[in-house]
Amino acid sequence: MKSQRDRSDLRAFFEPASVAVFGSLREVFGLGYGVIRNMLQFGYSGKIYPVSPYQNGDVLGFKAYSTVNDVTDPIEAAIVITPPPTVPGIVEQCAQKGVKAVIIVSENFAEAGGEGVKYQQQLVDIVHRTGIRIIGPNTVGLFNAANGFITNPYLIVQKKIRKGGIAYCSQSGYVGTAAQPLEDRAIPVSKMCDIGNKCDVDEADLLNYLADDPETKVVAMHLENAKDGRRFIDAARRVVVRKPLLILRPGRSEEAARAVASHTASLAGNEQVYDSAIKQVGAIRLDTWLDYWEVPKIFAYQRLPSGNRIAILTLTGGVAVLGVDVAVSAGLAIARFLPATADKLKRIYPRLSSNPVDLGPILSVSDNPFAVEEEVIALALNDANVDCAAVSIYAGFDDIVAPIVEMFDHLKERITKPMALWIYGMKLSAMDEMSRQLETRGLPTYFYLETAVKALGVAAAYARIRAGLEE
Amino acid sequence: MKSQRDRSDLRAFFEPASVAVFGSLREVFGLGYGVIRNMLQFGYSGKIYPVSPYQNGDVLGFKAYSTVNDVTDPIEAAIVITPPPTVPGIVEQCAQKGVKAVIIVSENFAEAGGEGVKYQQQLVDIVHRTGIRIIGPNTVGLFNAANGFITNPYLIVQKKIRKGGIAYCSQSGYVGTAAQPLEDRAIPVSKMCDIGNKCDVDEADLLNYLADDPETKVVAMHLENAKDGRRFIDAARRVVVRKPLLILRPGRSEEAARAVASHTASLAGNEQVYDSAIKQVGAIRLDTWLDYWEVPKIFAYQRLPSGNRIAILTLTGGVAVLGVDVAVSAGLAIARFLPATADKLKRIYPRLSSNPVDLGPILSVSDNPFAVEEEVIALALNDANVDCAAVSIYAGFDDIVAPIVEMFDHLKERITKPMALWIYGMKLSAMDEMSRQLETRGLPTYFYLETAVKALGVAAAYARIRAGLEE
Question: A422 with A434: CB under 8 angstroms?
Answer without folding.
Answer: no
